[in-house]
Amino acid sequence: LTSGCSLLLAGAVADVLGNRKIYLTGCALLTAFVFACGLAKTGTELIAFRAFQGIAMSLCLPTAVSILTESFPAGKTRNVGFSFLGAGQVLGFCIGLVLGGLLIESVGWRVGYHICGGVHIIALALACWTLPVDRKREAITWHRLRKDIDWIGAFIASTCLGMLSYVLAIVTGSSSSIREPLNATLTTLAAVLIPIFVLWVGRQERLGKSALIPNSLWKIPAFTAVCLMVMISWGVVNSMEFFVSLFYQEVQKLSALQASLRFLPGLIVGFCLNVATGLLVHRVPAHYLVIITSFICAGSPLLMALIDPKWSYWYAAFWSMVLYPVSADVLFTVSSLVIVDVFPPKTHALAGAVFNTVAQFGTSLGIAIMAVVATNVTKESGNPNKDSPAALMEGYRVTFWLAFASLLLTGVIGVIGLRKAGKVGLKRE
Fold first, then answer.
1. 128 phi and psi angles, rounded to 5 deg
2. Spatial distance between the Cα atoms of 341 and 7, rounded to a whole number of angstroms
3. I want to staple 298 with a disulfide (CB 3.0 to 4.6 A). Which of 14, 366, 375, 407 is the partner?
């Protein structure tokens, strides 16, 4: 919630103050709050430290994109850089997934935060030593901070995203909670803020002033298409991870560690796909890459929708795990290159913020929709025991069908929006 709200503002500020400064500040704060989570004495403290951790993370995500584009010129080297940025996320998730399962069943969750804190200290030291100095910028003055950052646009967007993310998180736990006065009010206010934001950035663009996300960008088919595809794909892949994990633990009654280990094939495939995409993206038209991988990835939820819980893991679930990251991991590099290309070089941190905001919002929206569908289907189940594996599986199965349809839609969007995009990540003379 806090990370998603802060990304756009963090990216805009980093473009003015310098990426290295903001990135190192984010790393330092992230390290402190990770340790604080491990030392939290109450649930309230843990939630507060996690919230601050999200803000700190929002300083790192967009600046990583801009540091990469400043360090490598357009072409194969930058493409590979983006692919390893994606592969690093997959590798980190893989290690965290397995360690999380081990720690929960042995020494407890606090040790996980202590380990992560130690890793962050090492990462911070490496960043201080290896990150290049920021490119030369204009002198930082109060006038420039007011002129070059769309503060009002950032406030409107962040407030809207915060409200929507909060409501989606609440709805994920209980679909009936949308009727509560607070949630209904926040949803209405967020809906009102959307056209206000569009009108505001339109005004800024007409006057030649700084606009957070200019409306003219949405007229570029490739940009609009990849934003929609990222939103849907991230929603699907995170929903798959969530509901497949529930399938393993609530339906097949596996332990957290056993469930974690079953995700490893997909994570290995995801790491390899990220690297391969970086090497091939400038050789193959973008629409071929994303369309083919979207349709291939659709096989993952299809297998889970047809699965019999009594089947061996190797019969269907294994192949589903192999296929589920295909679309998102290829799309990571392609979409990063497309989004960076439409933003001026001096605002690439904001470009990184847009990508990460779309991805995080897609995750929140996807999980919320899937959770509401699963919960309602299970409630309407003919099984009298709504907590039984059979009743739960009815809800999960419908979410897998919905994920299947969503990935087919992603492929169709790619056909329409990227057909004229050609190859991306080409070297510029």
1. -60, -35
2. 19
3. 407
Terminal CA-CA length for the chain: 41
Asked whether residue 397 carries a pLDDT value surpassing 60, the answer given is yes
Which one, of 261, 363, 366, lies nearest residue 317 by Cα? 261
How many helices and strands (H and E) does the chain possess?
17, 0
Give CA 158 to chain center in angstroms: 16
CA atoms of 167 and 101, how far apart (whole Å): 29
Alpha helices in 256-388 (DSSP H): 256-261, 264-280, 286-297, 299-306, 317-323, 326-342, 348-379
127 Ramachandran zone, left/alpha/beta (phi>0; psi -120 to 50): alpha
Map tokens 């369309």 to a residue: 291
- State the Cα–Cα distance between residues 327 and 320, nearest whole angstrom: 13
CA within 13 Å, CB half, 238? 18
DSSP SS3 for 159: helix
Please check the confidence at residue 136 and state whether its pLDDT lies above 70.
yes
Structure tokens at 260: 């974690």
Cβ 72 vs Cβ 78: under 8 Å: yes
Model confidence at 429: pLDDT above 60? no
Q: What letters, b where the CB count within 10 A reaches 16 and e where it falls short, cover 250-284?
A: bbbebebbebbbbbebbbbbbbebbbebbebbbee
Query: Quick one: pLDDT band at residue 170, thresholds 50, 70, 90?
Result: confident
Cα separation of 165 and 364, whole Å? 6
Residue with tokens 């569009």: 198
Q: What is the pLDDT of residues 67-87, one digit of tens each?
A: 998 888 888 888 898 888 888
**Among candidates 334, 320, 226, which has minimal Cα distance to 269?**
320
Q: How many CA atoms lie within 13 A of 367 on its CB side?
A: 24
- Look at residue 214 and give its three-state secondary structure: coil
pLDDT at 428: 62
**Residues counted in the chain:** 429
For residues 300-314, average pLDDT? 94
Cα–Cα distance list, 224 to 5, 32, 85, 196, 343 (Å): 21, 37, 22, 20, 13
Residue (of 239, 258, 261, 238) closest to 249 by Cα position:
258
How far is the C-alpha of 330 from the C-alpha of 425, rounded, in Å? Answer: 13
What dihedral angle (degrees, nearest 10) is formed by the CA atoms of 285, 287, 292, 298? 150
| Other CB atoms within 10 Å distance of the CB of residue 384 | 7
Q: Is 134 helix (H, G, I), strand (E, B) or coil?
A: coil
